[in-house]
Amino acid sequence: MKAKLGLLKEEDMSLATDLYQLTMMACYIKDKKNNTATFDMFVRKLPETRNYLVAAGLEQVVAFLQNTRFNEDDIMYLRSQGFFDEEFLDYLKDWKFSGDVYAVPEGTVVFNNEPLLRITAPRAEAQLVESYILSMINYQTAVASKASRIVEAAEGKPIIDFALRRCHGPGAAHLEARAAYIGGCAGTSNVAAGKEFGIPVKGTMAHALVMSYNDETESFKAFTDTFKNTKLPLVLLIDTYDTLEGAKNAVKIAKELEKEGKKLAGVRLDSGDLTELSKKVRQIFDDAGLNYVNVFASNDLNEYKIQQMLKDGAQINAFGVGTEMGVSKDAPALSGVYKLAEDIDEKGNLIPKIKLSEGKITYPGKKQIYRITENGKFSKDILALESEVIEGEPLLIKIMDKGKMTYELPSLEQIRNRTLEQVGKLPSEYKSLQNTNYNVEISNGLQKLTNKLIEDYKRGKK
Amino acid sequence: MKAKLGLLKEEDMSLATDLYQLTMMACYIKDKKNNTATFDMFVRKLPETRNYLVAAGLEQVVAFLQNTRFNEDDIMYLRSQGFFDEEFLDYLKDWKFSGDVYAVPEGTVVFNNEPLLRITAPRAEAQLVESYILSMINYQTAVASKASRIVEAAEGKPIIDFALRRCHGPGAAHLEARAAYIGGCAGTSNVAAGKEFGIPVKGTMAHALVMSYNDETESFKAFTDTFKNTKLPLVLLIDTYDTLEGAKNAVKIAKELEKEGKKLAGVRLDSGDLTELSKKVRQIFDDAGLNYVNVFASNDLNEYKIQQMLKDGAQINAFGVGTEMGVSKDAPALSGVYKLAEDIDEKGNLIPKIKLSEGKITYPGKKQIYRITENGKFSKDILALESEVIEGEPLLIKIMDKGKMTYELPSLEQIRNRTLEQVGKLPSEYKSLQNTNYNVEISNGLQKLTNKLIEDYKRGKK
Known about the structure:
Two copies of one chain form a homodimer. Chain A folds into two domains: about 10-145 and about 330-460, nicotinate phosphoribosyltransferase, CATH 3.20.140.10; about 145-325, Aldolase class I (TIM Barrel). By secondary structure, chain A is an alpha/beta fold. The longest helix of chain A is centred in the N-terminal third of the chain and has 24 residues, at about 130-155. Chain A has helices at about 20-30, 60-65, 70-80, 85-95, 125-130, 130-155, 170-180, 190-195, 205-210, 215-225, 245-260, 275-285, 305-310, 325, 410-425, 430, 445-460; strands spanning about 35-45, 55, 100-105, 110, 115-120, 160, 185-190, 235, 265-270, 295, 320, 335-345, 350, 365-375, 375-385, 395, 395-400, 405, 440. Chain A has a seven-stranded antiparallel sheet with strand order 13-12-1-5-3-17-18. Chain A has 17 helices and 19 strands. The first copy, chain A, is globular. The interface between A and B is large, with 134 and 134 residues.
């Protein structure tokens, strides 16, 4: 048997959906019910440890909507299941997304119940794309949001993404590096992501290098000899055997480099009491007149640990963060959903729709988010019907019209800047690590419509 | 700007590594230190809520090792960073994995400190592949292990993987469906994964379908009309408005289907008190003489909820499980590591290696896991040096020799069967949801060697 790589390929994107999307589509096509419907993608409730989300993943959704098709191979596979008739398979052969998309730009701060994305499209098209979109936006938004908390906790000290090895496969890691950068990280260790997205790539050395030489100093020397004439910042990992001994060995290396007019950029600590060790290591370098040598720290870090370390006076200049950010460990799944908000009847009338399942009620109709800013800070959002006149900045922007782009995609750098600007406008209580709920008001118009639909349903049942 | 899909492509696999792997490699190549080294991939400590792991991901690692290369584009990107000299970039142009691989077969139950994989290769090769391998095995093993707990809790009732939308992107979902099937799931909703890996694809309908028709009965009728002459098992989602009303509407549909000699396969509950609702729904169907109609349940399920529901007498025939399994929610990152275990010196002597960083000590040397079975049940494992003679079944098998396959990859079905067989041999306490530690003994030979290396290091320091 030939070993399978297990990487999802572009030509298989169309099938990266739940089977029920295809069966529902077949039902709509057969019933000539492929008229226009509007779906919202939103997060009902923020995780307890998130006061805000940073929207991310839109660019990949756009690429998916532009490019997904069913090829012969897909059709053959579907036929082989024995679920679908030829009329439906023919429909799939010509499948192309032709809908309208509204979304909040990536890097926008968003809250519970606010649509990150709204799709108005022939029902069967809107249905197919649900699963892929949710998976893409749920994950990138989860990581960008977690990264933003970590970046804020570090008070301006750079955070480097080290998550690849703990991400949910190399495909997840690819997206993770992008989302972490959107959240405000300064770079990634993931070279493939660096290449694809233009993220600065960063790295030091691992214990394996130190252990591959006869002693620590020999390994440090070998490493700095290899890179001292290149652009790589020279960073030595000093905790393989004994951190303080390692620091002293690094001092020797730094002094030798100085003789050649070169500089040791820093050292990395990866175990033990990072706060205490960082102070002692700082002292060792300062005593040697090497105050330019930076101290980096890593080892299962998160926003709480970083905040505490800085409070305790840790002498750390930058942090490497992996696992906790890469899997958004305290909230590893964002529960974004994609729900029917508006339908159209036989006569062409728009019909707002509501879901009433226990604990899962949705807001009906085409909606817009309006953000109110006071004295340069966000004070509240109003979730309203698009048809209402509300003051404030509308956050949902038209991205695609009948399947064609109407929006200039920003660069990753611009997205990252938007995050930093948006988070900068959040009042400090939402940036703290305490749980605080931002005020998302429901407009009068939206609340009235919601109440009316609930009443209508109750009356209908009697 | 052209929108990027963000899917990791086969041609970029070689760069799906941490930058420090490449810098360390450059150091080894420059220093002519590219001699043979042995690395173990293992999990130091199982998550608190895991009594055992189910190894998964080896096939994808094999495919990666067989196929990863550096193309011109990769080399150009690396050159543009200004970190590497041409000698190293030339080395990469010819890069090909030429090492030996030992691994436990997928579907094997494993425990803390046991190598899931061991690589003996030129140091620079073994180093490059670390990050990709860790990400692949950490994730698939995390999901297979979580899935196995859920499958066990369901006491033989099928578990269907519904996780796509909450996975860490569609690439993660692709691997997730495979790993969940290895863990014992009966199928997946993910069509792309079904196609690629041959996993049975399953699905029902969503609330959007019900809401797209004038009323629930009309939607049920439309759906069953579409599929009653196909192989799709007919399952109706009955909780969109009111579950018990929904059940009654489903009874009407089932009766109409009976007139045509067709059968309603089941109904799905997706909200509310699933245990109580399932009993009432079961009663409604039984009262109507429809005891063949199955009740499916979904809604943020996990092994604890399923165990409790069955204990409380829930009348549920199968479960759909998404988020909790797809992100292994209670333990979303498996902390698998990849550590130097043995080196070779200039004279060709094998040198066992140990890492001594605080709380991160490793076991040195080339190792084997021996499993002891008593009365058909696993009683303990012994982690030993490969050179020791130990009774018990050796779990590490040779997979590749000098880069060539020496192992016949099993089918996914065979892997899944192995999991079920292996878990069947676990004493019941390890399959319970209480935390219980399996006995992984360290052999005398391995313990002596470990102690000796620690002593040697301490002496060296004095």
